[in-house]
């Protein structure tokens, strides 16, 4: 396959994750919507293979990078979401009450903040729209970095996302949180005034799954389970950090992700502490993934240099 070292690392990680998913599903007797997941896997694999065709044939290396990254992103997201469900039920107590207490010391109350947003319906509606832009932003940045030939930045972006999601899942497994809506009620009028992406019903279903586990997994009804650290906040920081330095694009991404912070609170049902957790996670993982990329790239270069004399001798 025509892959950079970082891409090979991610492929290997995805394969490992799929193997772990398979073992957990078999051990726990979880039923799976195999048809639904097969369609998703074929979509991701199809994009990846198309990218391989473009790279190996050298038709367009920029399109190749974008397609390969997009395919890897889809496949990793599938494997990670299945893993997040397959580890249920959790064995450790939730830390929400600690986070609620921390928020209270900072003067923050989720229900009060949502009620304030609902008194201005245009704010609640705008935050609902902003909250839905996380995944589209990732895809836009993958496409723009790929098409502009910024392969190193694209690989760093992918590694940061893979490592960030994996670290968030592992942290949540040992220190689970279900979000403020699992513990605080909203007045009935709010639901009639503004749309809420993750409401009390959603949060309490996450709490139930974490306690009871799952007996069936399908891509049609997968919920986002992690509250702390806020992965929406992690993605927001990642998009701002890696967005290509073009004035218009930077302005759009910056505005969207400044608004993402209140959207995470209102629409995502997060504790205020979750946002700090997401930012801290990014501050740790982004430079760590950069060092990993530098190490992988150095190994790749050294391997190419060692192979070069052999190829020359063989040609003679």
Describe the structure.
This protein is an all-alpha fold and about 325 residues long. The protein is about 75% helix and about 0% strand. It is built from 13 helices and two strands. The protein has a two-stranded parallel sheet with strand order 1-2. Helix 7 (about 135-145) runs antiparallel to helix 8 (about 150-175), helix 8 packs across helix 13 and helix 11 (about 230-240) packs antiparallel against helix 12 (about 245-265).
| Helical run tally | 13
The counted number of beta strands is 2
Main beta sheet: 2 strands, parallel
Q: What value does the average pLDDT take?
A: 90
Radius of gyration: 21 Å
Helix content: over 70%
Given as residue ranges, the uncertain stretches (5+ residues, pLDDT < 50) are: 311-316
Instruction: Tell me what portion of residues adopts beta-strand conformation.
Output: under 5%
**Envelope shape:** globular
Order of strands in the sheet with most strands: 1-2
Structural class computed from helices and strand pairing: mainly alpha
Q: Topology as H/E string?
A: HEHHHHHHHHHEHHH
Termini separation: 27 Å
